[in-house]
Specification:
Blueprint (H helix, E strand, L loop, with lengths): L4 H8 L4 H8 L5 H12 L1 H6 L7 H10 L7
């Protein structure tokens, strides 16, 4: 079952409709969303711990949540 708007907002805080729809489309669980949020919020420290980058739905959400680099 796809995440609800309320579940997504409970993890991310206020979010726009596009972001909510993109995350809901991944069919991720609430736990996967929370893990992705933790990666986005603390990516450097998690990488320094030599943890492997997540795969699957968590990786999809990280891609949605990560700001795009506009630099060449």
């Amino acid at each position: 079952m796809a995440l609800t708007r309320q579940e997504i907002v409970s993890v991310l805080g206020p979010s726009d409709d596009t972001l909510i729809a993109q995350i809901a489309a991944t069919d991720a669980t609430l736990e996967e969303l929370a893990e992705a949020r933790a990666w986005v919020d603390a990516e450097e420290s998690l990488v320094e711990e030599t943890r492997e980058f997540p795969l699957g739905k968590v990786a999809q959400i990280i891609e949605v949540l990560s700001p795009e680099d506009d630099e060449p």
